[in-house]
Write a structure and sequence with these properties.
By secondary structure, the protein is mainly β. It contains 1 helix and 6 strands; from the N terminus they run E-E-E-E-E-H-E. It has a single domain, classed as Nucleotidyltransferase, domain 5 (2-Layer Sandwich).
């Protein structure tokens, strides 16, 4: 293994966020330098008279209001950025 020459810089721990827009679940992970956490919710979005619903609440709308439901959110995003 080749060794680097020059001044050593201190390692700094920053904040990191990861988002996975999956077909079944949307997940987010957060790291703030010391702690980490993650969460997941069903990949559903529904449009109702009350506003926009996401996750489990939107999934429950599927039988009542199927025409206003979006299930594959990641397919609506551009393929290249």
């Amino acid at each position: 293994m080749e060794q680097r020459k020059g001044p050593r810089l201190p390692i700094q721990m920053g904040m990191g966020i990861g988002i996975d827009l999956g077909s079944a679940y949307t997940r987010i992970a957060v790291f703030d330098g010391c702690h980490y956490g993650c969460s997941a919710m069903p990949s559903y979005m529904a449009f109702t008279n009350l506003g926009v619903l996401v996750g489990e609440t939107a999934r429950k709308q599927a039988t009542e209001n199927p025409t206003q439901l979006v299930r594959v959110l990641h397919l609506m995003l551009p393929q290249s950025i």
